[in-house]
Amino acid sequence: MTGPGAAVRWSEPSGTPPGGVTRIFRRDRTLRLPQRKWPVQARACATVDAILDATAQLLESGRPTSTNAIAERAGVSIGTLYQYFDGRDAVVAALSRRLREALAVAVGEAAIRARREPRHAGLRRIVEAALAGDIRRPRLAATLDRLEDELALDADHTVVQAALTASLAGYLAHHGCDAADRADALADDLCAVARALTDAARRRGEAAGDPLVTRITRTLLALSA
Questions:
Q1: Euclidean distance between CA atoms 44 and 51, whole angstroms
Q2: Which stretches of sequence are listed as region Disordered (predicted)?
Q3: What is the DSSP letter of 206?
Q4: Confidence band for 10, pLDDT divided at 50, 70 and 90
Q5: Residue 112 vs residues 107, 153, 171: alpha-carbon distances, Å
Q6: Between these two residues, 135 and 215, which has the higher pLDDT value?
Q7: 144 close to 99: Cβ distance less than 8 angstroms
Q8: CB-count burial class (<10 Å; 0-12, 13-18, 19+) for 194
Q9: What is the percent of the chain with per-residue pLDDT over 90, rounded to a whole number?
């Protein structure tokens, strides 16, 4: 996830070009509100990046996110936007997938690094990765959560949740927190608890920061003991 005002470009360690999610959401996967066209060339990827960046900035600022507003902010024609997306909802869905996939990859990488650390430090590293978007761009995270519910992107959420659960389950099994055949269930429970604590903090108006990270980490440690 990215900091305030920063671009939301996708990057992979392998150097796969941006312009479309590439690890979890595949072109041939049945998606709700899919992209009309998946960019391949660098220039096309940059165009899609600009459209998604513009959408994120508009959502974060609270300004209207019509296709005309998005195209104007991105510096592209409305015709160019419609080459890749059917409309505003499809753009928002693509932005959601972009950021959620980046979240899943970041948590996966954190979980691998955390295996070399004591349990408390390792779990904290994973929680920090999971909350990065809420911490750095809280308004965008909250707005996207609401829009994702409105757009019924449940299938997308299921795919990302499976990736998050697998990463955490691997970490738990490595540290012997549970038998390997039960690690998936424990990881799923811990993810649900972390999400519930994050949602409760957001409803109270509490900013996602060190106190929330500490509280979630302590809760997950207690539940996985």
A1: 11
A2: 1-21
A3: P
A4: very low
A5: 9, 28, 7
A6: 215
A7: yes
A8: buried
A9: 46
Within 10 angstroms of residue 77's Cβ, the number of other Cβ atoms is: 11
Whole-angstrom distance, CA of residue 22 vs CA of residue 101: 9
Global pTM value? 0.82
In this prediction, residue 26 carries a pLDDT of: 61
The token pair at 49 is: 């990046």
Joined together, the tokens standing for residue 148 give 């994702």
DSSP 207: P
Query: What DSSP string runs through 16-50?
Result: --SSS--SSS-TTS--SS--SS---SHHHHHHHHH
> Which amino acid is residue 212, in one-letter code?
L
Q: What angle do CA 67, 68, 70 make, to 5 degrees?
A: 65
- Number of residues that this document lists for the chain: 225
Distance CA 173, CA 177 (A): 6
Most confident of 16-20, 152-156, 194-198: 194-198
Task: Give me the helices (H) in 115-179, please.
Answer: 119-130, 132-136, 138-150, 154-174
Written as six digits, the tokens of 54 are 């513009």
Kindly report the average pLDDT of the chain as a whole number. 84
The region, left, alpha or beta by phi > 0 then psi within -120 to 50, assigned to residue 75 is: left
> Helix H segments across the chain?
42-61, 67-74, 78-84, 88-114, 119-130, 132-136, 138-150, 154-174, 180-203, 210-223
More confident residue, 179 or 222: 222
Distance CA 55, CA 69 (A): 9
Query: CA 206, CA 208: separation in Å to the nearest integer?
Result: 6
